[in-house]
Amino acid sequence: MSEENKAIVQRFVDGVINQKNMATFDEVIASNAVAHHVPPGLSPDVAGWKAMVGGMLGGLPDARITLDDVVADGDRVVARWTMKLTRPRRPMYSVVSEGGPWTSSRWTS
Questions:
Q1: Which of helix, strand or coil describes residue 62?
Q2: Per-residue model confidence (pLDDT) at position 109
Q3: What's the CATH number where 39 sits?
Q4: pLDDT means per 10 residues in the chain (109 residues)?
Q5: Helix, coil or strand: residue 35
Q6: Alpha carbons 64 and 41: distance in angstroms, whole number
Q7: Cα distance between residue 89 and residue 22, in whole Å
Q8: Element (H, E) at 98
């Protein structure tokens, strides 16, 4: 189970984020998944999560994620990742940007 779940995370990052293929979203995310990280105004279900990701990718077309570490135990997966992109010269999610390259490392569980 652990290796399968790590592969799902890799497939989500490669397909959805890096290749901008939203069909992969439907292939790897369960239809009853709950998203605890969507911004206000979006529903915490798959439709809201998909709208958030699609909006982000539409506004950040060169966004790429590299998985630095993926650790799994049973059905739990934690990923440490780095995102690189070029910030647009316009507000996005209430943040005003002056543009230019941006890199951020995060972890997701």
A1: coil
A2: 77
A3: 3.10.450.50
A4: 92 96 94 90 94 89 95 94 85 64 88
A5: coil
A6: 26
A7: 25
A8: none
Question: How many CB atoms neighbour CB 109 within 10 A?
Answer: 7
Residue 84 falls in which region: left (phi positive, over 0), alpha (psi -120 to 50) or beta = beta
Q: What is the pLDDT of residue 90?
A: 64
The closest alpha carbon to 63, from 14, 5, 108, belongs to 14
- What is the span of the domain harbouring residue 89? 2-108
Domain count, the chain: 1
78: nearest Cα among 45, 106, 40 = 106
Residue entry with tokens 């989500």? 12
Q: Is 107 helix (H, G, I), strand (E, B) or coil?
A: strand
